[in-house]
Structure formats: structure tokens, C-alpha cells
Design brief:
Number of strands: 12
Distance between the termini: 40 Å
Oligomer: single chain
Strand content: 5-15%
Helix content: 40-55%
Radius of gyration: 22 Å
Number of helices: 14
Structural class: alpha/beta
Largest sheet: 8 strands, mixed
Shape: globular
Length: about 375
């Protein structure tokens, strides 16, 4: 054990790291996806429900291809050293044993070197299959530069099965069809887009910077290219006044796109955003739990898709049972419910929720102080 510690402190790992951004989708393998930062922060940062707070309002930047390749090279070096250390620890290559018995108790996560190391460690232990390209909109980078990065990444690590990224619909809308096809051919597997709402009035109100029609065109481009598409929706975003139109028009846009995944991220006003100010100043009435369920019911009823509809976030409807334990009304796994086959199942669960007393549910206001996106 002491030999392993010496190698970590004095060997190759001591000088290796790569840049990491602050967020990734939970569905991208949990902590098991390798994180490669291609851009920094968000190029828009104006949405009133987010307002760039995830990136602390830092200015958007595109990293150079050479810088990203250098990070990928460092990942390869860290991977090689981890594998060597696991063998030296007489674990027969068992990386999990190495982490649990040698590293977690000895190396505090206090700097980027340690964060980089543990990201690679978890990735290797899970089979080195998934990669997420950070931050909020990597396709905004000139297409051929991003193609070069993806090809380099996949050539460096042949075990990779999936490469994913966030994207703004406006960015994809502006791209040519052959550019999206080039990204797919290079190995981009999936894009995550924040639709939030399909209602033009609400899109304008929250300063999303894109129209419903542009969302539809962007989504169709992604699907046409053969890239998987996750669309994120935000129940409750329109408050009480815009609830019905929000639900109906969101379903309309999703029907036109028919994405691979629809992921629910219920709205909660977050500290440091204009929408929290509106809530505090009584300019926004947030939905009660039953009102939010009724909004989701309208959306689900109107959906005519072949998507997987997912409620994989802790803010989705949850209630306390008689013993004070919290249960989620809808399952939270990343694959969700397959539509149209399980549409009636979801609607039945929503009806079940509407028959549970309102005061047993976690309320939107309960999440405000958490400040978690």
C-alpha cells in the first residue's frame, strides 16, 4: 500500500490534469462518463430561469483544438498510470479495489489534479464507454474543429461507445445539414437540448432566444443526421397564468420533432435569477403540486411520439407516505417510459398522484433554498 502511495505522490500522476467544467446531464452515465471540456460556459446566459448561474456568469470561450487534444492526451497518460498502479497494488488490475483501499482514504479532492484523476478512475472502472463534451453548447464551435476533436478522442480510446454534448437549438438551427451529418459521422452520438417550452409567448418571456419553429427545425436536423436527441421540458415554467398554453404548445413541438428522449426538469425559481425576483415580488405564481400534475397530464395526454419520456430528476413529483418516507410518483431511471406503449401507465400514475393529498407532496418552494439546477 505504501508503494502505491509513493507512486501517486512522486510519479506521473502528480503533474497531470485536464480542465473540467461544472455540469453534465445526470443521464450521461452518472459519474462514469469522461468529461472533456471543449467550450467554457454558455454563449447565451440570458434565460431568466438560469441566467448563467451554473457558470457563475463567466464569459463564454471556445478552447483551441490543440488545448483539447492536450487534455485528451493527459487522460490517456492518467489512464495508463492508473492501470499500472492497480497492477503494482497486486489487485490483478482491479481498479475499484485500488480506489477504495488506497486512494479515497489518502487523497483529498482539493484541486484539479485530484478531480481529473477520479474522473478517469470512475470512467475506467465503468468500462470507458461514455464521454460528455462540456460545457453548454459545444456545436457552436466551427464544425470541422469539433469534428477533429471527436475523431481524435475516438481514435485515442477505441472503447468509447457514446459521445454526447449539450447544444442550443439556435446553434443547430443555424448549422447546415451537412455539418450536422459531419458531426454524426465523426462519432457524435447524442445531443441534449433545452426546449423548456414550445410556447412562443413563454419562450420570449423567459428570454430563451429561440422560437418554437426554430426548435422544430433544429430537432429535425439532428434526427435526420442520425444523432440521438434528448429534449428537456420544464413543467411549471409559465406559472399559473400560462400553464395550459405551456403544456399544449410544448406537446405540439415535441410531436413535430419526435425526439429519442423527453426529460422532465420541473421549474423551481433559483437564487440569483430574475425569475426568483419575480416570485419574491409576487409577479410569478408558482404551481402547487396538484396544479403541476394537471399541467403534466395535459402535456402527456397531447403527446403523440415514439420517444422515451423520462422523469429522471429529483424535482419531479414526490410525496411523503404514512411513515414519512419520500416516494417519487414516476420512476426516475434514465430510460423512462416508452411511448406510446406506456402512455396510459404514466397517465394512470398522474391520476394516482392527484388522489394523494396535496399536503403530502414536496412543494416547488421546498426546492428554492437548495439552489440546484
Amino acid at each position: 500500500m505504501n508503494t502505491c502511495k509513493s507512486n501517486i505522490e512522486k510519479g506521473k500522476l502528480a503533474g497531470l490534469s485536464f480542465e473540467l467544467g461544472p455540469i453534465r446531464p445526470p443521464s450521461e452515465g452518472g459519474s462514469n462518463s469522461l468529461l472533456i471540456r471543449v467550450t467554457r460556459n454558455c454563449p447565451w446566459n440570458r434565460c431568466t430561469f438560469c441566467f448563467g448561474r451554473a457558470y457563475e456568469h463567466e464569459k463564454f470561450q471556445m478552447r483551441t483544438v490543440d488545448d483539447v487534444k492536450a487534455d485528451i492526451d493527459n487522460v490517456a497518460l492518467i489512464s495508463a498510470e492508473i492501470n499500472n498502479l492497480s497492477k503494482e497494488a497486486s489487485t490483478s488490475g482491479n481498479i475499484k479495489y485500488l480506489a477504495a483501499r488506497t486512494l479515497f482514504n489518502r487523497l483529498p479532492l482539493i484541486d484539479n489534479i485530484h478531480q481529473s484523476y477520479f474522473n478517469v478512475l470512475n470512467w475506467l472502472q465503468s468500462g470507458a464507454k461514455t464521454v460528455f463534451l462540456q460545457d453548454a453548447d459545444t456545436p457552436v464551435m466551427p464544425t470541422q474543429q469539433l469534428v477533429e476533436i471527436i475523431l481524435y478522442l475516438r481514435n485515442k480510446f477505441p472503447t468509447i461507445e457514446r459521445v454526447t454534448s449539450y447544444a442550443r437549438a439556435k446553434t443547430i438551427y443555424k448549422k447546415k445539414d451537412d455539418e450536422i451529418a459531419d458531426l454524426h459521422n465523426a462519432g457524435l452520438s447524442r445531443l441534449h437540448i433545452g426546449l423548456e417550452t414550445g410556447d412562443d409567448d413563454l419562450l420570449k418571456k423567459v428570454q430563451k432566444g429561440v422560437t418554437a419553429e426554430e426548435h422544430i427545425i433544429a430537432g429535425k436536423k439532428i434526427k435526420k443526421a442520425g444523432i440521438q436527441l434528448s429534449e428537456y421540458i420544464m413543467p411549471g415554467l409559465g406559472g399559473k397564468i400560462m400553464s395550459t398554453q405551456h403544456a399544449e404548445n410544448t406537446a405540439r413541438v415535441l410531436n413535430a420533432i419526435d425526439p429519442d428522449f423527453i426529460r422532465s426538469r420541473p421549474f423551481s425559481p433559483l437564487p440569483g435569477t430574475p425569475m426568483l425576483d419575480d416570485y419574491i415580488n409576487n409577479k410569478l405564481e408558482i404551481l402547487s403540486s396538484h396544479e403541476r400534475l394537471k399541467e403534466i397530464k395535459i402535456l402527456i395526454s397531447d403527446l403523440n411520439v415514439t420517444s422515451r419520456v423520462c422523469f429522471d430528476h429529483f424535482r419531479n413529483p414526490a410525496y411523503y407516505n404514512a411513515n414519512g418516507q419520500v416516494f417519487h410518483l414516476l420512476k426516475q431511471d434514465y430510460d423512462g417510459y416508452k411511448f406510446p406503449d406506456e402512455k396510459e401507465t404514466v397517465l394512470a400514475l398522474i391520476e394516482k398522484g392527484l388522489n394523494i393529498s396535496e399536503n403530502q407532496f414536496l412543494q416547488t418552494k421546498d426546492f428554492i433554498h437548495l439552489g440546484i439546477i
